[in-house]
Amino acid sequence: MKKIFYLIYYLKHLDKKKFNKFLNYTEKLTGRPRFFLLRDVLGSVFRYNISLLEYFQFRFYYLIDQERKKWAGTGYMYEYQLRMNPKSERQILDDKTLFYKSYNEFFLHKVADLKTLKSNQKLCQELLANSSGKIVFKFAKGKCGKGVLIRPADDFTIESLIHFMENEGYDLAEEFLIQHSDLQKLSPSAVNTIRIFTQLNEKNEVEVLGCRLRISINSHVDNLAAGNIAAPIDESTGVVTGPGVYSDITKPDEYYHPNTGVSIIGFQIPFWKETVELAKKAALKHPQNRSIGWDIVITQNGPGLIEGNHDWCKLLWQLPVKKGMKEILEKYV
């Protein structure tokens, strides 16, 4: 019965245009009849607890049963993350306002919520005078880069900044971060962040589940869901070990950035040791949430925290390494 509810959820939230695009592509790629593929998609939803789109993104049309079982899909991840990060505790990660107040010691940039700005003109002025010359506006419950707006700081006075946030419904205003020059050369269209997945074991020790570099492609955000790419990083060295991959199966992997021509494989993440240390320290700050995906910016002065995700993305975790990794999580359950 539970899997019926999952199917209803998947259908309700299905991007039909993307589904048809993937289906048409797979039909031509494999030569299999559409009816066969649709039947396999539906069967896989029930058998492997994945979403309709994940059938294509995990390349199930190429995989035998034993390989398919290795992938962690939406249904499995929902239950796993609910167990690791209970609803009663995850609000501190879900709400960006609570997050920056709780993890402020790991931030390099100024962040302020609307209520604080109204009562602190000095902070408001400091935000408007930040060295980047830009302000980033966010919703407290924003996900996957949606709703993020970047504006020149010169567009605002203290009064107009507050008025703008009230009218547009923005909860947070942040100093725009200037990324490290190496990352700027790789991809200048957005701040390219590091995602580190951490897990607390039974001894409350931090274990790293994986590290990824998110790379923007003609976008002001670097999220995979926004059409950008992600590449795997070696945890011990901070060197990128594979090409950038899309969540769109119709697009080929990128071995060089399509705009700058910089090689993706072999790219060295600056301040790598400090970056991993930051993620591990943050993971211990509020151990009631045990499995978190941390977004970290690398600047000329070192790494800084941007946000933590209790519902971290299984696509970003698995697609760049081109394998299912469910078995890694099963030892923590």
From TrEMBL:
<protein>
    <submittedName>
        <fullName>Putative polysaccharide biosynthesis protein</fullName>
    </submittedName>
</protein>
<feature type="domain" description="Alpha-L-glutamate ligase-related protein ATP-grasp">
    <location>
        <begin position="79"/>
        <end position="330"/>
    </location>
</feature>
<dbReference type="InterPro" id="IPR039523">
    <property type="entry name" value="RimK-rel_E_lig_ATP-grasp"/>
</dbReference>
<dbReference type="Pfam" id="PF14397">
    <property type="entry name" value="ATPgrasp_ST"/>
</dbReference>
